[in-house]
Write a sequence for this structure.
């Protein structure tokens, strides 16, 4: 049950992102879980809910979990979503390059990311866009 | 409620990482062999996560592991190997055998992760090595900060080799790299010959696999060839070793592999830091090398 450690980190990151926008709480988060990570999305959601109850929100936290497929690029030029190993009893990407048989390294799909944070609407009617999510930082 | 827009999943980040990878690992893929998902690299993790709006939570653990690696492997020149696998797979016995075959002047430390108890720690102490016991309580895995704490109990200046025995668990440790040069997954014939297929992602996150208790495979009707072919299908190019830790069989190949991880790691550094600053790192690894050789 390592999802609880991860949930705690996710909420810390969300808290930081909210603080960056002058908010001391948040109402919703979107988390992306890579298919090839070892994080169980359902367990993560449960843990986020439990951890948020005890540490953050007054009301319910809206938790959105999306999954990200595996993606690899090979030195030979092949790139894409690796197939699945049929023989395996749980999901695992096939890390043998379909073109050259070399071992693939995943470029994506083995991560767990906090994608966005929803902040409460401000009482003074200020533009919520200014607060928004941590994504607002990314345009550079 | 204001809903924010999501970033497309094909964000620039993977490209950054690819570039980092290309810059740091170019030309070495053949040399390094299998690279676990969380293998310690150098350069590739210099990549800034803090500035990213999308915080990769797992990368934070990987960064902590990098810091550990920097401190233990580089600053102190210690060779670090982590062993993970289920309770009863034989991790403790395997490490005991590696300790027994080491030369007298090799200073060895062991960090023992266990949910509770001193049993394994006591076994190692009886072999005369330094031991830091970590009772994780409700946590099912060691994480970098627990290892960091355990290091307080060890004299890093004196150590040549550090073995880390993770908590017996086939799922949770995978996302928590500990900064080791070799991450070895230990399974045993008694776990059933489908154990590899049950835990494919864990195999993909490791550098080497041990199939232990091969001496009783027949008694439990385990097909060792099947297990080995499963490993090579799931984690291509990953070396697999058949051992009977109880009887001390098959350890030569494993010890050689561990020695080689130290070497490959060193050449990794020479390569990465081919800007004239290699001598520092080379120097810090020299101890590890000498001792690695003495295993033979």
């Amino acid at each position: 049950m390592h999802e609880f450690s991860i949930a705690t980190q996710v909420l810390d990151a969300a808290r930081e992102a909210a603080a960056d926008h002058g908010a001391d709480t948040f109402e919703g988060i979107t988390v992306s879980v890579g298919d090839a990570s070892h994080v169980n999305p359902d367990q993560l959601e449960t843990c986020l809910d439990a951890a948020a109850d005890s540490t953050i929100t007054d009301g319910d936290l809206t938790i959105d979990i999306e999954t990200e497929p595996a993606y690899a690029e090979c030195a030979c030029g092949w790139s894409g979503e690796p197939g699945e190993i049929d023989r395996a009893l749980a999901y695992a990407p096939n890390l043998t390059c379909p073109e050259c048989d070399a071992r693939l390294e995943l470029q994506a799909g083995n991560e767990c990311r906090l994608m966005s944070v929803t902040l409460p609407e401000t009482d003074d009617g200020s533009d919520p866009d200014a607060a928004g999510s941590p994504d607002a930082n990314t345009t550079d | 409620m204001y809903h924010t827009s999501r970033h497309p999943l094909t964000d620039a980040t993977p490209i950054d990482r690819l570039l980092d990878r290309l810059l740091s690992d170019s030309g070495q893929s053949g040399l390094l062999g299998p690279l676990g998902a969380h293998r310690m690299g150098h350069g590739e993790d210099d990549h800034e996560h803090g500035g990213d709006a999308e915080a990769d939570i797992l990368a934070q653990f990987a960064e902590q592991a990098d810091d550990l690696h920097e401190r233990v492997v580089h600053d102190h020149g210690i060779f670090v190997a982590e062993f993970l696998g289920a309770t009863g797979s034989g991790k403790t016995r395997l490490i005991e055998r590696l300790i027994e075959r080491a030369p007298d002047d090799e200073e060895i430390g062991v960090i023992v992760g266990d949910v509770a108890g001193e049993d394994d720690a006591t076994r190692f102490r009886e072999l005369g090595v330094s031991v830091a016991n970590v009772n994780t309580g409700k946590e099912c895995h060691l994480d970098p900060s627990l290892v960091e704490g355990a290091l307080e109990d060890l004299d890093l200046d004196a150590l040549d080799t550090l073995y880390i025995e993770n908590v017996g668990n086939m799922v949770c440790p995978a996302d928590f790299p500990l900064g080791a040069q070799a991450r070895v997954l230990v399974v045993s014939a008694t776990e059933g010959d489908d154990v590899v297929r049950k835990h494919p992602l864990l195999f993909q996150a490791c550098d080497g696999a041990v199939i232990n208790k091969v001496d009783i495979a027949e008694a439990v009707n385990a097909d060792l060839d099947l297990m080995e072919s499963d490993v090579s299908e799931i984690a291509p190019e990953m070396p697999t070793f058949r051992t009977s830790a109880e009887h001390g069989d098959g350890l030569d190949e494993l010890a050689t592999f561990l020695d080689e991880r130290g070497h490959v790691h060193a050449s990794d550094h020479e390569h990465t830091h081919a800007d004239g600053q290699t001598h520092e790192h080379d120097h810090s690894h020299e101890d590890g090398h000498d001792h690695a050789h003495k295993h033979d």
